[in-house]
């Protein structure tokens, strides 16, 4: 029986995938094997010694103490792409809201009274005129699961699209519409775009991607959209640019004290992934990831350890989270030399690595204990 702690409300369609061998609890003091959460902030939380995996039902993991989990051998998963369509649709809506004063027009309509509302509408609607997005240029910074969908959708809406992603992988490149111009320098996006949308994770290297210097190189009247993370756009720089007219509108899905109620800022209350479909997709994906790891030791979509998987179809299986240093695999093979290793997979990620070993004979507790006690080993599991 595996114990799973939920730190937020998780869709039942996801939890149901875990099956009868799982006990779901909301007791944070319990000894649990796994945690599934959405936006709960774990940084001040005491991590149970029994904890093996954390699954974030969503893409961003800045609410999880990644370094702390890594040091303890706790695998952290996210669900890339599960909420991508929901965010894509809101980005498109954000562009339309910023191009046409729809919000202002709706609020004005609420004030209309009398029997001649139709006449008032015809007289006053010119105050809310805007621009079409067709024929304009959209700059997409970050061509991951969400950025690709946004770029492709914009092409279909008749926009020219310029994309920038220095880490674009082959699979994502193949999904990108052929009309998207992929550039090697982010400055080319700044200089060409009428709209700029950011879709990268928040890290030290990406913080303030949109800053005063970047804005200075943009077109006058540019519209900036941020549905990724608040820290990617510098608030002081954006407010100064709005005041000068350099930036026409700023659409942000992460309101804070500096952006709420500010002229030119459309602050949306973090609705990017807030659809029933998205929450269901994320819950199902998170449950599948944590189940596959707990039951078979396979890792898919981890943010702190390498993806690594093998069929679990042999008599014995051991999985090892360890430091990425020479000669470790040879030590495992020597300890297991009497049980015939049938399959082995080893993957590394920076300073850490993960190894799965299948054997044709049962791995004894003594063998397991010997491996687990090696100084290079962070965490080892004997999979039944």
What would you note in describing this structure?
By secondary structure, the chain is an alpha/beta fold. The chain has 3 domains: 1-82 and 274-304, 3-Layer(aba) Sandwich (Rossmann fold), CATH 3.40.50.720; 84-267, NAD(P)-binding Rossmann-like Domain (Rossmann fold, 3-Layer(aba) Sandwich), CATH 3.40.50; 306-384, 2-Layer Sandwich (Alpha-Beta Plaits). It has helices spanning 12-15, 66-71, 84-99, 102-109, 117-124, 145-156, 170-175, 186-192, 212-216, 235-244, 276-296, 328-335, 365-372, and strands at 2-6, 22-25, 34-37, 53-56, 75-77, 137-141, 160-164, 181-183, 195-198, 222-226, 247-252, 265-267, 316-323, 341-349, 352-359, 377-383. The chain has a 7-stranded parallel beta sheet with strand order 8-7-6-9-10-11-12, sandwiched between helices. Strands 2-1-3-4-5 form a 5-stranded parallel beta sheet. A 4-stranded antiparallel beta sheet has the order 14-15-13-16, with helices on one face. The longest helix has 21 residues, at 276-296. It is elongated, with a radius of gyration of 25 Å. It starts with a strand and ends with a strand.
Short description:
With 384 residues, the chain is of the alpha/beta class.
First and last CA, distance: 13 Å
CATH-defined fold name of the largest domain: Rossmann fold
- Characterize the overall form: elongated
Number of helices: 13
Q: How many structurally independent domains?
A: 3
CATH top level label of the largest domain = Alpha Beta
List SSEs in N-to-C order. EHEEEHEHHHEHEHEHEHEHEEHEHEEHE
Mean pLDDT figure:
96
**Largest sheet descriptor:** 7 strands, parallel
Low-confidence stretches: none
CATH-wise, what's the superfamily of the largest domain? Answer: NAD(P)-binding Rossmann-like Domain
Rg measurement, Å: 25 Å
CATH architecture verdict of the largest domain? 3-Layer(aba) Sandwich
Strand ordering within the main sheet = 8-7-6-9-10-11-12
**Broad structural category:** alpha/beta
**What is the count of β-strands?**
16
State the share of residues found in helices, binned by percent: 25-40%
Percentage of residues in DSSP E strands: 15-25%
């Amino acid at each position: 029986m595996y114990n799973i702690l939920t730190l937020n409300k998780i869709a039942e369609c996801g939890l149901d995938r875990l099956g009868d061998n799982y006990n779901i609890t909301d007791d944070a003091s319990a000894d649990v094997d796994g945690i599934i959460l959405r936006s709960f902030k774990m940084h001040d939380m005491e991590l149970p010694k029994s904890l093996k995996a954390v699954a974030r039902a969503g893409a961003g993991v800045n609410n999880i103490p990644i370094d702390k989990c890594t040091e303890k051998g706790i695998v952290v998963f996210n669900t890339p792409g599960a909420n991508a369509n929901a965010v894509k649709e809101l980005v498109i809506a954000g562009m339309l809201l910023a191009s046409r004063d729809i919000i202002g027009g709706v609020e004005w309509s609420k004030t209309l009274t009398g029997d001649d509302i139709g006449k008032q509408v015809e007289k006053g609607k010119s105050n809310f005129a805007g621009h079409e997005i067709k024929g304009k240029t959209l700059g997409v910074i970050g061509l991951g699961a969400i950025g690709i969908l946004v770029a492709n959708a914009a092409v279909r809406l008749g926009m020219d699209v310029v994309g920038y992603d220095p880490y674009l992988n082959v699979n994502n490149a193949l999904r990108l519409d052929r009309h998207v111009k992929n550039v090697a320098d982010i400055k080319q996006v700044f200089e060409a775009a009428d709209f700029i949308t950011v879709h990268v994770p928040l890290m030290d290297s990406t913080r303030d991607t949109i800053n005063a210097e970047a804005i200075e190189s943009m077109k006058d009247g540019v519209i900036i959209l941020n549905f990724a993370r608040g820290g990617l756009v510098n608030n002081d720089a954006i407010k100064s640019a709005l005041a000068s007219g350099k930036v026409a509108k700023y659409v942000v899905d992460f309101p804070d004290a500096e952006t709420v109620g500010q002229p030119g800022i459309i602050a949306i209350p973090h609705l990017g992934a807030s659809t029933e479909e998205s929450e269901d997709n994320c819950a199902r994906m998170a449950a599948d990831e944590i189940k596959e790891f707990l039951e078979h030791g396979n890792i898919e979509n981890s943010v702190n350890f390498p993806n690594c998987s093998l069929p679990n179809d042999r008599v014995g299986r051991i999985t090892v989270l360890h430091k990425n240093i020479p000669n470790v695999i040879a030590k495992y093979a020597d300890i297991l030399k009497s049980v015939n290793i049938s399959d082995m997979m080893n993957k590394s990620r920076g300073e850490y690595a993960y190894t799965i070993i299948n054997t044709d004979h049962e791995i004894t507790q003594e063998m397991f204990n010997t491996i687990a006690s090696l100084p290079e080993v962070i965490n080892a599991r004997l999979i039944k």
